[in-house]
Write the structure tokens for this entry.
Amino acid sequence: MVGVSRGDYVICQSFTFVASANAILYQGAQPIFVDSETKTWGMDPELLEKAILHCMSLEKKPKAIVPVHLYGMPVNMVEIMRIAKKYRIPVIEDAAEALGSSINGKMCGSFGDFGVISFNGNKIITTSGGGMLLSDNPKKIEKAKFLATQARENFPHYQHEEMGYNFRMSNVLAGIGRGQMEVLNERIESRRSNFNYYKEKLGQIPGISFLKELEGSISNRWLTIILLDPKLTGGIGREDLRFALADENIESRPLWKPMHMQPLFESAPYFGKGIAMKLFKHGLCLPSGSNLTNEELDRVIDVIINVINN
Ligand SMILES: *Cc1c(COP(=O)(O)O)cnc(C)c1O
């Protein structure tokens, strides 16, 4: 939709789920990874500009920029859009985890030339699989629908003039999605209330911290994450907590392993300061389902407090 083809450069946030970067490989293009900033865990605008200038010095202006709102927390879209406009590079905003999150009242997914939202089973609302493409450009949306339905031309017979895909959402799943839209606000409230509960009970413990919303930003708090500082927890690290929780039959998970650290992307250029790597090393996703009760959250909290106190 933005004209990325074989050999083109596309700048992508390194700290993300692999889907953001695989989309670049599908086009035969070269991902250029950019690190996160500590304020949002999203793409660092300064490093973005550095990466753009590097690509341009090789006479390969990037064809797109892919920032990602992680765990529901809005990326600094204002600054990223300013830089993207300065160099006239389209932005494809990965808002897969951030449906309902916003910056100064504007929804995540609506800043870029395109936005993508996921309705996969693990997201805040779901159609079991599938997602949504957003754009202010009605022609591009028409074109996307056309390509998603095997590029069938407008003829009574089946006429095809270019390659298409079977990427449309089925009507059954779309029906489920319309129902899910009605509970979105409730789901956001539950996720935010999980976060507040964890923060209230764990926020005072030395060596445990939570990511704050910047002024004007609202996160759907899709997942609640704690960051550990082993210097302050008496040496307790992410894996110690994860194992202790697993012993109590509680599943917790490390954060996304940055793309520039993945064997799949070993040879891809990376611009960074090791922020995403540190977040991966010290962060833990706590149970964050929309239907968790305070008693269930207390079970998680008790395990964490016990491990740190002993
Ligand atoms: C879930 C997710 C995706 C992929 O969404 P699908 O609907 O499963 O294709 C992409 N990016 C991020 C950041 C995600 O968390």
Residues 16-17, 19-20, 68, 94, 96-97, 118, 120, 131 surround pyridoxal-5'-phosphate (CB under 6 Å). The mean pLDDT is 97.
